[in-house]
Design goal:
Largest sheet: none
Radius of gyration: 19 Å
Number of helices: 7
Strand content: under 5%
Structural class: mainly alpha
Order of helices and strands: HHHHHHH
Helix content: over 70%
Oligomer: single chain
Number of strands: 0
């Protein structure tokens, strides 16, 4: 197998791993996302939430890997667009990690608050704020960045003719449509795993 094929294969495997990691993470997060008083609750789901955070961190790293692996292959067609693809992946992963830290912070504050006997109303307000941060990271990360990913990658595919022209135009059109949709609605469904909000 040639080096370009190995790199393309690695990118594809990492792409599949973003789904393999993010979908279980979403279901592991369910207690903290659905219970507005989780931060003052008994915390029986702390371990699963932290494990979900770990899986979502792996999702972020795998997302970056999809772009880094394929970069040496596609940069020959357009170094600017290829670098843009890597950059938008890094941006997406960074925003995703902010959401991970927000949910992990709820677990940490719940444990510290239970020990210190802090005011429940204040803790609930902080918990709501951290959930709001997580929701916004879903909008500006996995809800927005994949449109930019698709625009950059679609352009590279069009230039390279690695796929039929119609397929590359479709990729470019999908990216444009996603970008318009996100700008028009400004929202994302928190009841979907991050990977399902759209990727490459």
């Amino acid at each position: 197998m040639t080096k370009p094929r190995r790199l393309a294969l690695a990118s594809g495997i990492l792409y599949l791993l973003t789904f393999a990691f993010s979908i279980p993470a979403f279901f592991l997060y369910e207690p903290v996302l659905t219970d507005p008083y989780y931060i003052v609750s008994g915390g029986g789901a702390d371990t699963r939430i932290i494990f979900g955070a770990f899986l979502e961190a792996l999702t972020a790293l795998a997302g970056i890997g999809t772009a880094v692996a394929v970069y040496p292959v596609v940069r020959r067609q357009s170094e600017v667009a290829s670098l843009g693809f890597v950059t938008t992946r890094i941006y997406e992963a960074t925003v995703l990690i902010i959401g991970v830290l927000a949910l992990a912070s709820i677990v940490t504050l719940r444990q510290a608050g239970a020990a210190a006997g802090t005011d429940d109303a204040a803790m609930v307000a902080v918990g709501h704020a951290l959930i709001a941060v997580r929701d916004q990271t879903a909008v500006f990360g996995p809800g927005f960045a994949p449109a930019l990913n698709a625009l950059c990658f679609g352009y590279v595919l069009y230039r390279s003719r690695l796929v039929p022209v119609r397929a590359s135009r479709r990729q470019f059109g999908v990216g444009t449509g996603r970008l318009w949709l996100r700008l028009e609605t400004g929202g994302v469904n928190r009841n979907r795993p991050v990977a399902s909000h759209g990727r490459r």
